[in-house]
Write a structure and sequence with these properties.
single chain, 389 residues, alpha+beta, four-stranded mixed β-sheet, 11 helices, 16% strand, disordered N terminus
């Protein structure tokens, strides 16, 4: 973007100061692309006894069958030690397991080494999580999701510090300062949308050039809101340019093993099954140095290790996966189109980090970098005991 140097663009870490480190699951079996197989894994764990249950659980230093931990905020998982646990599997929830890959997780604190409860406390229908990705010039620097993210390695920045969209996770005074410079007050979602469109790597981390030009601001927010819409899969199913949609042209096999792309026919082949049209931009779309479609397919076809709970997988390819794949192809193609528009985004009349320091917006107070106190109800602790508030 012309006219702005790395030195005078404020950092994302200052504009959205509260961040949470990625979750550390500790074991792979509590998450999967299919919810039914998670319930089967849970049942297999609880049917096993003694050393057999321990081996299936895959203990770590952080979690064993005898770990005493509280309930995951907002979830109904039990709190008795897993060594004597009984009962049905907690209802799996949707999570973002990898870039653009929505899977399922058993939301039980006893199964996750480091679950980051502060994220779960603010996860609701109003929340948007911005997730920093690995440095990769070919892929997006930020992902946005309404789901709790499991993917690594970058920090997670919730848009709101409290449930129900209360208290934006923005530098105190930023919205007021932008109001004065732009002549209109942006919403927290506007700021996140601008960030999605304008963010770029810098020597000290991700930088977010700002502007006081209403015209440039509106264009950037428009692009960013489209990115948010596509990444969060909100609302009406998107269509390719010209109203096209990918379709299944030849039935997918019950258990596809290979994935191949034919650029001449714009066709994705899953063994003898065929899906088209698949634009080259969708096939080539990368995140973290990996083709998204290849990673998505591998997560659903790689066999689990024999003798472990990951071996329990769907016996055949579920219809839901086909629907998800068709939508993912469209989303990636449209995001590739937005990426070229981002590269053409111009920025005039910059609002620099020095401007924000002069206005007292920066540096942000230390409290803005810490989670807000959101405990307005009791959370069940280990062995059914309630924590003292």
């Amino acid at each position: 973007m012309p006219g702005v140097t790395h030195d005078d663009a404020p950092l994302l870490a200052d504009l959205m100061p509260w961040s949470v480190a990625p979750l550390r699951p500790g074991r792979a079996w509590p998450s999967a692309p299919d919810a039914a197989c998670l319930k089967a894994r849970w049942d297999a764990l609880l049917k096993a006894e003694g050393p057999g249950r321990e081996a299936l659980f895959e203990p770590t230093r952080s979690r064993t069958l005898h770990s005493a931990v509280g309930q995951l905020p907002g979830r109904s998982g039990g709190t008795e030690k897993l060594a004597r646990a009984v009962g049905p599997c907690p209802e799996p929830v949707r999570v973002l397991a990898a870039p653009f890959d929505e899977q399922w997780l058993i939301p039980d604190h006893r199964l996750i080494d480091t679950a980051r409860p502060e994220l779960w406390r603010v996860a609701d229908e109003h929340q948007i999580f911005a997730v920093e990705t690995a440095a990769d010039p070919a892929g997006p620097a930020l992902l946005a999701t309404s789901l709790v993210p499991l993917l690594r390695p970058g920090p997670i920045r919730p848009l709101y510090r409290r449930p129900r969209g209360a208290e934006p996770n923005l530098a105190p005074g930023l919205l007021e300062h932008l109001h004065g410079r732009l002549g209109k007050r942006p919403t927290p979602v506007d700021v996140l949308a601008w960030t999605m469109a304008a963010v770029r790597p810098g020597p000290d981390g991700l930088a977010v050039p700002l502007t006081e030009s209403p015209e440039h601001w509106s264009r950037g927010v428009e692009l960013g809101r489209r990115m948010l819409w596509l990444m969060r899969r909100d609302g009406e199913r998107p269509k390719l340019p010209g109203g096209r949609r990918p379709y299944v042209r030849a039935p997918l096999p019950a258990r596809p093993l290979t994935l191949h792309y034919d650029p001449d026919e714009e066709t994705l082949r899953l063994d003898e099954g065929r899906i088209s049209p698949v634009p080259p931009e969708a096939w080539e779309f990368e995140a973290g140095g990996t083709r998204v479609l290849e990673q998505w397919f591998a997560a659903r076809t790689t066999q689990g290790q024999p003798g472990t709970l990951t071996e329990i997988r769907p016996g055949t390819w579920p219809q839901a996966w086909t629907s998800e794949l068709l939508e993912l192809i469209t989303v990636l193609a449209l995001l590739a189109e937005v990426r070229s528009q981002r590269e053409a985004l111009t920025l005039g009349a910059p609002v620099t980090a020095a401007d924000l320091r002069g206005a007292g917006v920066l540096p942000v107070p230390g409290a803005a970098r810490r989670p807000a106190s959101v405990l307005d109800h009791q959370e069940e602790g280990p062995e059914g005991q309630f924590a003292l508030l």
